[in-house]
Specification:
By secondary structure, the chain is mainly β. It has one domain (about 30-190): Jelly Rolls (Sandwich). It has one helix and 14 strands. Strands 1, 2, 4, 7, 9, 12, 13 and 14 form an eight-stranded antiparallel beta sheet that branches. A six-stranded antiparallel beta sheet has the order 6-5-8-3-10-11, with no helix packed on it. The longest helix has 19 residues, at about 5-25. It is globular and about 50 Å long. The termini are far apart.
């Protein structure tokens, strides 16, 4: 070994240290939109005989990668839940899909009886989104699920709850029941950019 060996290592070490921030882990997800009030006496069917789909529009306040969302849902183990993040038109999902994730129903199953609690949907390919309004949609095929709603009224100022089912028109309808309009309970997390 030559006496100048440590000198040759110094530039390589400097390059490695300069690259370290680029190799660092992404920032942790941060909560950006939510409506966490849950009406435990009221669930909406997802899937089932009328193939009901549910959606919730929400507003993001900063740019980031939408890493995951949380919803209070319980499913049959055989169900498959399809989740999309979409652009909106007049507040409703418009079919322009920005992210998609398929989740087996057993992830949302709580035993021995359905229990209220948020369940994780993590996107394998998170979408980079700018501030603005978006929507998530939920579809269960095959099988069905029950999703807990928020309390009566419009409880999320940044968006609205929506549904569509066989026998309805082709457009999303604002979510309602005998108590009036409803929002879904949810949380949306971003990794800031």
């Amino acid at each position: 070994m030559s006496p100048d060996h440590p000198t040759r290592l110094a530039p390589a070490l400097g390059l490695l240290l300069a690259a370290a921030p680029a190799l660092a882990a992404p920032p942790p997800p941060e909560l950006d939109a939510e409506q966490v009030s849950i009406d435990t006496a009221s669930t909406f069917a997802l899937g089932g005989s009328v193939s009901q789909r549910l959606a919730q529009s929400f507003t993001l306040h900063r740019k980031g990668r939408l890493s995951h969302l949380m919803v209070p849902m319980s499913c049959q183990p055989k169900a498959t839940v399809h989740v999309t993040i979409e652009k909106t038109t007049a507040g409703a999902p418009n079919g322009s899909v920005l992210a998609y994730q398929k989740v087996p129903g057993y992830v949302f199953t709580s035993l021995p009886t359905p229990a209220v609690g948020m369940r994780l949907v993590e996107f394998e390919a998170p979408a980079a989104l700018a501030p603005g309004q978006y929507a998530f949609t939920l579809t269960a095929k095959p099988g069905d699920c029950g999703l807990y709603a928020g309390p009566n009224g419009s409880t999320h100022a940044g968006g609205k709850g929506w549904f569509i089912a066989d026998g309805n028109g082709p457009d999303w309808i604002e979510l309602f029941d005998g108590g009036g309009v409803r929002d879904l309970a949810f949380q949306v997390y971003l990794r800031p950019l």
